[in-house]
Amino acid sequence: MTAAEIRKQFLDFFASKGHTIVPSAPIVLKNDPTLIFTNAGMNQFKDYFLGNKVPAHKRVADTQKCLRVSGKHNDLEEVGIDTYHHTMFEMLGNWSFGDYFKKEAIEWSWELLTAVYKIPVDRIYVTVFEGDASENLAKDQEAYELWKQFVAEDRILMGNKKDNFWEMGDTGPCGPCSEIHVDCRTDAERAAVPGASLVNADHPQVIEIWNNVFMQFNRLKDRSLESLPAKHVDTGMGLERLVRVLQGKQSNYDTDLFQLTIRATEKYCTKKYGQSEKTDIAFRVISDHIRAICFTIADGQLPSNTGAGYVIRRILRRAVRYYFSFLDVQKPLLHELVPVLADQFKDVFPELQQQVDFVKKIVFEEENSFLRTLESGIRRMDEVMGNTTSKVIDGKTAFELYDTFGFPYDLTTLIASENGFTVDKKSYDVALQEQKDRSRAATALDLDDWVVLEEGNTKFIGYEQLTSPATVQKYRKIK
Ligand code: ATP
Ligand code: MG
Ligand code: MG
Ligand code: MG
Predict the structure, then answer these.
(1) Cβ distance 64 to 21 under 8 Å?
(2) Ligand nearest to the CA of 207
(3) Which is one GO molecular function term here (predicted)?
């Protein structure tokens, strides 16, 4: 079964249970002061749960483009190293706004996974909220009883508040959740180690695929809970993980969702996927990051030096550095993958195909300009790491790498950690703040702000100005 068929089966299944299929919200959020990127399917429905808006339909389902690289959910460090955390991923979800509750949600998730997708019953584990006496929260006995109809009791595991109780924020809707995990280990591995203890214990082949949240309480300012008059269901299942399970792969990257861009990347380098762990990580990171970059730009967020734009620039530069350092590619490569993705997703997210030339051009310009300083930045890092015995890169150097060579802080820490170094964040922050103060002072003095000066009169004050084609010719006058 292809990923497209698997996605369609999910939506068809919930349509058959009376759900209206709605489009994904944009990955970039412009009107939410609390969140810059969509990080879960429920984000676009927040106002229904808060009671600020009345939903047009009480049952909906969709596939939502999500990005988890900042704030509460930041999976960036995992990406490419493990095989199931992505920056951008699709979250399949079904919702009940004050309509059905635990019984239907649990029955349907079981029916979909075992009768439609045919995942073997003895490979599935579920988790249930165990309760928390300090918060006066009871065990979710109702969910336990419902699961017991389907799952042997030794595969129903109790989970704590951190994993199995969901809250929107300090106040507002909240409730227990039940996760579904699939054990993809080989038969031999399963025979050697008893399975249940592995759930949530970071075994790379036992993975969480689906979370069912049951919103039944409202958290008040004094931390007390009241029962919600209308109870809601909010579920999220990672498509890439589901596809990996159904296609019988050991890694999300071996599914058809990532193979096209991995094969395309191979055409531009002399390496092949599967040759070594080091180059494989690079292939995985590139095929992951290009999705985040493309869909975010297609949703209207250009790379820039602040906010959401800087998050995208950071991801893009990280991907460039991976092909530069590990795949021996010195020329822009990412933009070549844009049409591959656009074609692959044209039926589900046509917005990329509709702007394919534009997105390709932006990506090309970004990677091209970063490649101009990347090599000297890496050389500078090697020099610093070679000259110190402390295994710490000082903040001043990290700032210089950022300011002069365009290295986002997390790229510097990544390269540092690959070499057994850490970065002094405190002194980096001080240097960054000093620059902000300097530029504020300079702006106060110089009302002309950007002026083109003759050579000799100018001083290069950072990589930042080289990134945008419109400002390439401009240098800031330093008094
Ligand atoms: P994990 O514990 O693996 O980080 P999570 O508990 O943070 O996942 P949820 O917030 O419960 O994830 O999201 C619902 C589902 O979305 C998960 O069960 C998983 O299938 C998927 N998912 C979450 N984060 C990612 C990610 N970074 N990449 C791919 N899929 C993800
Ligand atoms: Mg997580
Ligand atoms: Mg989890
Ligand atoms: Mg979860």
Answers:
(1) no
(2) 1
(3) tRNA binding
3-state secondary structure 450-463: EECCCCCCCCCCCH
Residues 6+ apart with CB under 8 A from 110: 150
The answer to whether the CB of 244 is under 6 A from ligand 1 is no
* pLDDT reported for residue 192: 80
- DSSP, collapsed to helix, strand or coil, labels residue 319 as helix
The helix (H) or strand (E) run that includes residue 436 is helix 425-445
Tens digits of residue pLDDT in 83-114: 999 999 999 999 999 999 999 999 999 999 99
Is ligand 1 within 6 A of the CB of residue 199?
no
The verdict on the CB of residue 291 being under 6 Å from ligand 1 is no
Residue 442 — pLDDT band, cuts 50, 70, 90? low
* Cα(212)–Cα(105) distance, integer angstroms: 8
Domains annotated for the chain, with CATH where assigned, are 3-246 (3.30.930.10), 260-374 (no CATH), 436-476 (no CATH)
Q: Is 80 helix (H, G, I), strand (E, B) or coil?
A: coil
Q: How large is the ipTM?
A: 0.99
Say whether pLDDT at 131 is over 90.
yes
Tokens (6 digits) for 327: 């795949």
